[in-house]
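Chapter review: from sequence to fold.
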Amino acid sequence: MESNNNTKKLKKFTYGDQFDPNKFSLIEILELCKKCQPNRDLLEASIAERYFSQHSQQTSSKLASENIGKLAMNCFLSIRAYQLIEDLQESRQYKLTSLAEEFLSNTDNSSFVNQKFAGHMQKDDIEAIKKDKTSIVEILDKKARRVFSKKELDISDEELNEIEQEEDD
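The token string follows.
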């Protein structure tokens, strides 16, 4: 793909690390989403306080606050990229999807929730994880970037494929 002034640039975001099961469970984050629904700002603030409040403590308080805010925003974007929440028409408003509601109605059956969520992931993602379990963050990051690029930057699948092909070359 040749560069020109009309070419859209793919912005890179690091979603995967913010959606790490070592930091919180899927059910726990969905319960937080339900509690804060529909206010995205409240959800991001709650995520920041609950999961990232000790992050960046060696930096200035302003920089630490900015970093924590970005981590919380990336977590929100990851949850949305996996279609567990969806935007409403109103600015900075969201709602749980039917998949998230199904997970929440099965909180006593974590095996079901985990299997259903795994089935929700793309088949090639699952195959890549089976081959290299350390690649899960990269896979989540790539999927989230694709969803974000398509939705927020209005980039087509074909454009994303071209960009990814250029990156691989």
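Two observations follow directly from the output. The helical segments are 26-36, 40-51, 61-81, 98-104, 110-120, 123-131, 136-152, 157-168. The CA atoms of residues 30 and 101 lie 9 Å apart.
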